[in-house]
Amino acid sequence: MNQSHDGFNPFSVLCSQTSLGGSLFLLQRMKKYIQDDWNKCDLTKIRTITFLCRMFPWSFNLGRAVMAIDYMVFTLRLIHIFAIHKQLGPKIIILGKMVKDVFFFLFFLGVWLMAYGVAHQALLFSYDPRSKWIFRRVFYRPYLHIFGQINIHEMDERTCTYNHSEIDAGAEPCLSTYANWLVVILLVIYLLFTNIVLVNLLIAMFSHTFSKVQEHSDIYWKFQRYNLIVEYHYRPCLAPPFIIFSHLHILIKRHIRQIPSAKSQHFGEKWESRKQGTCLKMN
């Protein structure tokens, strides 16, 4: 989970993460690694960096785009360090649960966006045969309508053409003005439902998620802090890409010479002693 070195040696990062599983088998470690949301973020970075390594000189612009996305993932990965803070740690849990709420909210929004977008395209732009503009008007423009970007002049008559070849060349297609009044009614219903009903539904879901996590914020923070301490307790001292030497040392020490981990024994003894002390206090 090191932010600054993941791109230099993805293999060493993967070895570093899967070696933190203690006595678990390799497949169990890999499964445990993939289940963590932050590790999924790391895998995204590794995949995009690998994709960049396969770029050719002619794909410079594509490489720039992938690198920009990769930078966003690297930067957002820094949120993980806030888990150590008592106030900010639970907020990370809240953000993660809110993202899930948004995911389910998008199902409702997608249905309404599709319904209005297809009707809007069919009623106003029935003479436009360009497929890329059809998809743009069906999905992109209804999405912008939610944020108030509405071009009212689209519903009025203007200089245009019905010739398909001229439209393909870039000329403005004529609008179907026979039902522009119906488009206005559909727009009002669409904005009323999306901007008022669906947005307030999302706010209510956020409020419920926030209150539910905030009630047990101390417990969430302690679990986060414990997991972070355990993770760095088992982590080798070297950082990628030099961590490969630590992996070789661990391979020789653990699997060839069969020497048990001193860190695991030390941490296990302290955990057992604390657990016994807690049981004695309860008795």
Automatic annotation (TrEMBL):
Keywords: Membrane, Transmembrane, Transmembrane helix. The keyword Zinc does not apply. The keyword Membrane applies. GO terms for cellular component: plasma membrane. GO terms for molecular function: calcium-activated cation channel activity; ligand-gated calcium channel activity. It comes from the Eukaryota. This is Ion transport domain-containing protein. The lineage of its organism: Eukaryota, Metazoa, Chordata, Craniata, Vertebrata.
